[in-house]
Specification:
Blueprint (H helix, E strand, L loop, with lengths): L5 H8 L25 H17 L7 H5 L8 H18 L1 H11 L6 H9 L9 H16 L10 H18 L7 H27 L3 H16 L6 E4 L2 E4 L1
Helix pairs in contact: 1-5, 1-9, 4-5, 4-9, 6-9, 7-8, 7-9, 7-10, 9-10
Length: 243
């Protein structure tokens, strides 16, 4: 996973109540994105299902889960709406953050797709599928919490495993139906923007030598909101697994 240019990070950090601290990027993240997904519980269920399948001599990852398509066609208009939606959510509680987000990514400003493309470079993940976007978001959180500095650590095989795990969980959960490009675009682009914000905060923390605090903050966020303790997970070709 590649880190972003420092140019943007400072502006995005204004989305937090205390703009001077990199670890405060959390309030800019949309905590409702994974509502109903059940986070760590869903991962645990998925791992147990895979283990049972392996013991029975069956394929651990079902063809349906792996092949599920949450594809959509990205467009500048969809990305513009994604930024506007997040800015609107921030407006009531953090108007400065909403303003900073719009100033960075609003109409006529920097396209976050360019930055996202750098993040997924070398991972094999696509910018045109909601399951890929969610996988990238989770992998970014994992990389931050576990201090993964070498982007080559997250290989295409590992990223594919998480994508397959996510797709299977999404399909069973019913939050997002396969082959619904309109919903997939809304869902996928939201995760892409959140990933860009996460990564910008990560780079700013590295610049200011506040990585331990930022890593702790992001770890607490994923654990508290989604029930995912990344410090207790490892990456495998089948997705996240307990250490």
């Amino acid at each position: 996973m590649k880190m972003l240019p420092l140019l943007l990070a400072s502006a995005l950090l204004l989305a937090a109540p205390r703009a001077g601290s990199a670890q405060d990027i959390g309030p800019a993240l949309d905590m409702t994105l994974m509502t109903g997904w059940a986070g760590g519980e869903a991962v645990r269920y998925d791992l147990e299902k895979r283990a049972a399948a392996a013991k029975g001599g069956r394929t651990a990852t079902t063809k349906t889960a792996t092949a599920s398509s949450f594809a959509y066609r990205p467009s500048p208009a969809v990305r513009e709406r994604t930024v506007a939606n997040l800015a609107a959510k921030l407006q009531a509680s953090n108007p400065a953050g909403a303003q900073a987000l719009t100033a960075a990514f609003g109409p006529g400003k920097l396209d976050y797709e360019t930055l996202y493309a750098k993040i997924i470079s070398g991972t094999g993940l696509r910018a045109t599928d909601a399951a890929d976007a969610m996988a990238c978001y989770l992998l970014t959180g994992y990389a931050i919490v576990n201090n993964v500095q070498d982007g080559r650590t997250i290989t295409p095989a590992l990223a594919k495993g998480v994508r397959g795990q996510v797709a299977g969980i999404m399909q069973r959960n019913g939050q997002l139906k396969p082959d619904d490009p309109v919903a997939a675009a809304r869902f996928g682009e939201a995760f892409k923007l959140q990933t860009v914000i996460l990564t910008a905060g990560w780079e700013e923390a590295a610049k200011k030598s506040t990585l331990p605090a930022y890593r702790s903050s992001i770890g607490s966020m994923f654990k508290g909101q989604y029930g995912m303790d990344f410090s207790q997970l490892k990456l495998t070709p089948q997705g996240f697994a307990r250490k």
